[in-house]
Amino acid sequence: xxxxxxxxxxxxxxxxxxxxxxxxxxxxxxxxxxxxxxxxxxxxxxxxxxxxxxxxxxxxxxxxxxxxxxxxxxxxxxxxxxxxxxxxxxxxxxxxxxxxxxxxxxxxxxxxxxxxxxxxxxxxxxxxxxxxxxxxxxxxxxxxxxxxxxxxxxxxxxxxxxxxxxxxxxxxxxxxxxxxxxxxxxxxxxxxxxxxxxxxxxxxxxxxxxxxxxxxxxxxxxxxxxxxxxxxxxxxxxxxxxxxxxxxxxxx
Length: 252
Fold this sequence. Notes:
Blueprint: E1 7-11, E2 16-21, E3 43-48, H1 64-79, E4 84-89, H2 91-102, E5 107-113, H3 125-132, H4 139-145, H5 151-164, H6 167-178, E6 193-198, H7 210-215, E7 219-224, H8 231-234, H9 236-251
Parallel strand pairs: 2-3, 2-4, 4-5, 5-6, 6-7
Antiparallel strand pairs: 1-3
């Protein structure tokens, strides 16, 4: 297959297409911990890097959540996918919801892992600055969000973060996800949407996502024990099972 801009890898040859969107601190390598568990016979997975990340370097960062969603849709168009499901994490989870609202007739299901809010996440000045200054030594921030990470996992995540994005990208996407503003359009998407919350995540909680869940026309919440903000690493097998079950159920 011809290389597709922004798609770091395509895995599987199943009939159901799945677009996978990473979060803020790392590119699509954040999925390395769970890729061995995916069903490659049933699904075809496209692991996407947002502009400025990973295989999408040194392109300028996308502008806002809308720019991120449109970059992902452009990759899907290049792949020739008419319909597809979307799995996203954190910033990518919020973007998955935006992709669905921009292309509701094409997205068959969404599974958003610890997603940021479509209505934005206003942070006080001190918190915003602490997030902004966490690069490149993001270990303390990551460990505070994901208490079930092992030391080895945390060390590798920090290393990969430094290799796959730079400070300009870090800052630009912090502004993107905190400034999301499409909550009023979430109700335009009617296909099944699953929001996954790690019970140990201090940031993305049931309360934080309550308004999003209420706005969804076909939404459900799954709480995952033994996971914080990075369930695909902390509880990789269970997390893959959750999203593949959700996608399969939507197809039936």
